[in-house]
Structure prediction request, 756 residues.
Amino acid sequence: MALHNRLIRPFRVFACLFFLSLIFATDISADDKAAGEGPVVLNFWELSVQEELMRVLIGKFEEENPGIEVRLQLLSWDSGFDKIITSIAAGNAPDVCELGTTWVPKFSHSGVLRDITDEVRDIRGEYFLWEPTLYQGRVYGAPWLAGTRVMIYNRDLFSQAGLDRDDPPKTWNELLEAVHRIDELGPETYGFGIFAGEGDSVWQEFLPFAWGNGGEVLNKNHTASRLAERETIEALEYYRRLKEFSLVDRQAQVNQLFADGKIGIQISGPWNFTMIPRQNPDLNFGVALLPRPDKPGGVGAAFAGGEILTILSNSKHPAEAFKLIQFLIRGDNAIEITKLQQNIVPTHKNIIQHPYFQTHPNQRTFFKQLETAVAPPSHPDWVEIQEHVTRAVEEVIFRDRKPQEALDDASAKVNAILEREEDKVTMSDALITASILLPIFLFIAFKLLTLRKGKTREQRFIFKRDYASFLFILPWLLVFLLFGLYPLLFSVIISFTKYNLLTAHLSFTGLGNFVSVLIDPEFHNALWHTFFFALGTIPFTIFFALASAVLINRQVPFKQLYQAGLFLPVSTSVIVIATIFSYLYSPEGLITQAGNALLDRFSLPHPDSSWLNDVHWALPSIMAMNVWSSFGYYMVLFLAGLQTIPHEFYEAADIDGAGEWQKFWHITLPQLKPIMLFVMVINTIHSFQVFPEIFAMTKGGPLGSTTTVVYHLYEIGFHRFEMGQASAVAYILFMIIMIFSLLQMRVFRFGETQAE
Prediction:
């Protein structure tokens, strides 16, 4: 008993101190807020400005506003969007947050942004780019920095093609003639660069042609699609004519090849102003406004994007937050960002008079282009709408489909989105949380009380004996319940609901999500790609892993070196490997060059540009990389299994005169059956859950040819915010994996019967 007390007393003291600290911390925090002591603290998240400059600007703001302290959080464009969504869903959103123009409508619609219509009423005339901040006539953000696209051309290629390097194309016909003549300079020279195989860059390059020709995506009330109208069809037909003289690839590859001097004209952003001199200081390039249609009334339109500063609705200091926004959008502060980064301009209309723009003609042209730039429709479902615009363009570019047919299909799908009924919110997800956690804790409490007040002395003794053990496992148990069991049960429940991740509101739909997924053509497409990926990688992965293990298991020199070298890709980040292979698969990459030469030798067709940008070669390219990067892990498993096989078996086979193949087939493989089963199951699970390679290399493109089930789940959940449907996809995939695993166990089962 004395030992028991010595064990229990420290835990009791610790528990008391822990809970007292929580109480005092809460009281102190409440007292501080009530007393209003100390400066107001604002949390500011931003994505676009370099940290050093941003901290200088914040320091200047804090000097002008001594009662306000700003805590800066820098986000990346790759993961920032997901982090913002997660913070809002967790109730831990910042006070001020930078959002891209296409993000604002969805956030406004969900009610997570503060309405600042009254606050900006007096300054709206001084700035442009207000359209993306509007939702149902109200303003939910202030335009901070503007971005658009301009025409960037190679002046030397213009001269070689007999074109006037000082007179770039001003109309569509002039552009078509220019790219035709540049394309004829040689097989490694392209007249134009068309973006394809990824999301935003496709529609951002094409839609300006439609806007300049008088086309629109939606009508003014955002109740119907206008994609299938004559103006947009004409623009897409012209765009298809440009393809004949163009390199079709991802934006990064087009930018790179332009910097290498192999593309005559590209429509791209101002990041090229710093990228080109860094990569090719000798490139002689010019910048011009986008060409207009030849018909009367045509406009050289461009995509209007940029950065919007918003105040989150849960901010406790909205007045101070708006002061920070006012400070940052001021012309004298925003121009400092342009001077340093040269990839974006302020939204203040009069900033064009600043001396900086008089000495930087490229930036001045960029600012001038903003006068005719058009923002996409401010619709909460724009992310989903633009997917259909992108698909229509890629159908024409990759599959040579007629523009009329592609736009008719896209228009019908957009209309279906616009006609969807608003989900009826019936409850908060807090009710689900309570319904999950409360029974769990009540059950635990009941069991503890039952043991503590056991009817027999033996039961009470067991409880006292195991009391210290329970305290030791309590941290693990809490982690398991909160971060394991709770998310699992929560995801099961929301799979039967329409769940808004931003507002944490939901409505029950029964089996509606599962039915929608099972009849969704996009899911069928993703499922087929997943099966194809698994069937194409599992046999090769196992073959190379087993062959490598058998070879290394022999007495060969430098055995450990070979083993470490083959295992090295497994220990390397998948994202790092995917990034390297993206360059190897680029038009100038080693794999592309060698692969095309090999295919040419056998008179076989090969991609015109990047392997990752070809609808037929993109997924096999990723599969090849996956096999190379993963078979080393399974090789180690096979090697461990080989070393457990008794050597006497092989000696007996040698006495019987068995050959190497007979020993492998009749001894090695049967003895490796347990390892083979494990490898098959694990490899199947990994193959069906493939995601990072797709995310890093293709984003599911081109034309959805690399979209797998997990990537489809990610798109639904974190881009369309349909978390209920995403959960349904997850559990359908779980059932598929479970069925395949059970089948594999049945096929590879081993036991007493097979041992006999």
